[in-house]
Amino acid sequence: MFGKLRRPSQDVAKIALEESDRLSSTERRQFLRNGLFTAGSVMVGGTFAGLSAKVGAAATQYPPEVPLWTRSLGAGVVTNPYGMPSPYEKGVIRRNVPWLTAEKTSSVSFSPLQHLKGIITPNGLFFERHHAGRPEVDPQQHRLMIHGLVERPIILSMDDLQRFPSVSQIHFIECPANGGMEWRGAQLNSLQFLHGMVSCAEWTGVRLSTLMQEVGIKPEGKWVLAEGADGAAMTRSIPLEKVMDDVIVAYAQNGEALRPEQGYPVRLVVPGWEGNTNVKWLRRLEVGDKPWMQREETSKYTDLLADGTARGFTWVMDAKSVITSPCPEMPLRGGKGIYQIEGLAWTGQGKVKAVDVSTDGGRSWQQAPLREPVMSKSLTRFALEWNWDGNPALIQSRVIDETGYVQPTLTQLKAVRGTNSIYHKNAIQTWQINADGSVDNVQLG
Ligand SMILES: Nc1nc2c(c(=O)[nH]1)N[C@H]1C(S)=C(S)[C@@H](COP(=O)(O)O)O[C@H]1N2
Ligand SMILES: [Mo]
Questions:
Q1: The Oxidoreductase molybdopterin-binding domain covers which part of the protein (predicted)?
Q2: Which atom of ligand 1 is nearest the CA belonging to 176?
Q3: What's residue 329's pLDDT?
């Protein structure tokens, strides 16, 4: 009906399923019996059916019964000195794909996008990408040195850094390898593993331009090398134009100190640019007259093209969107009827202008309302109401950013980039809705 489809191969799909937090069949039966999902979430014929019908069902914690937890005192304050999510949310965690990397130190964990609401990633769920593991940095012992082609080199303690004027900005960080396993076909049946290398936080810190004014850049200074304090001593070069535009030397994330996974006590946030330029555990900024190509040769991310040549610097993350519900981990649980198709869109070029949604594999499109706030180089949430007729469907989202750039299909992207790439795969994602409400990752061919 929809032409040639590519589905994930069985073995890899199985691993994804083992790790995924889909309901077990017993849990699913339980939910159906209790009517938990169907009662609150399904509209039939325009009204919320099931709400009154379920009253009086043998479910002891439901109204009009008085639930167990209302009949006794709860735990007191500071029983959780650092508050943790409800134990019922234990499946909402970062996950890794064991076969993807040889070991866990140079590896990646994926954020559970299927469970997230709004646009802010909670700190404990922010994806992680480490080249040499996560160092435990003592902030008292940590210093940030700024030197090179500058008038007044400095070495700052973390206290010194906090004496500069600060900014707080909401920005996404995406690893350019996000979705990179899928250039040659569908691989994994999971939103988390396919798209979970993007997260979004409110970052607080000092503008790098403020620090540059403090040290005074010499006229020959054109690039800034940033170096991390981890075992990889990861370095990236950033051109002065970007440095003076919107780069932040960040020490806080969503209102608290950076998490160790995110570069505690200080990292670079390079809005809209490849994740790898956002150097964590930042210890050194060196102003130079050219990029440090030679030393970065082995560590720089390049994109191999079809003709064997490579793109060297691909800094900006192009516009991308994905439907986060329904998705393989979030099937349609209540039969046909009204659902919200929800998802996330973002672009390293600025703001998201519009998102279109298709339920027929890209033949027709409907504009999906954007949820406020819509901010530059931030995740943006969209949601479109959909009356599912219970038949198989192919759902897609397509973002248009403020430059007019339209998110490409995989065929369009491959025409420009070939299939040798790993990085920067921002093609339209297709989810297949099956008649039983389950959802599969497919590629339209
Ligand atoms: N010092 C250092 N900085 C680093 C890395 C690293 O391994 N070491 N990984 C980079 C990569 S490849 C990415 S995608 C982002 C990921 O940021 P996150 O772990 O906070 O999600 O950090 C970047 N900064
Ligand atoms: Mo990355």
A1: 131-292
A2: 14
A3: 98
pTM attached to this predicted model: 0.88
- CB atoms under 10 Å from CB of 289, counted, come to 12
Q: Are 290 and 232 in contact (CB under 8 A)?
A: no
- pLDDT tens across 25-84, in order? 444 344 334 333 333 334 444 444 444 444 444 568 999 999 999 999 999 999 999 999
Dist CA 254 CA 120 (whole Å): 8
Handedness of CA 39, 40, 44, 45 (dihedral sign): positive
Tell me the best of 238, 254, 278, 314 to mutate to test the pocket of ligand 1, counting ligand atoms within 8 Å of each CB and taking the most: 278
Rounded distance from Cα 6 to ligand 2 centre (Å): 27
* Full set of structural domains in the chain with CATH: 2-70 (no CATH), 91-299 (3.90.420.10), 320-442 (2.60.40.650)
Residue 359 per-residue DSSP state: S
Ligand 1: which of 202, 280, 379 to mutate, most ligand atoms within 8 Å of CB? 280
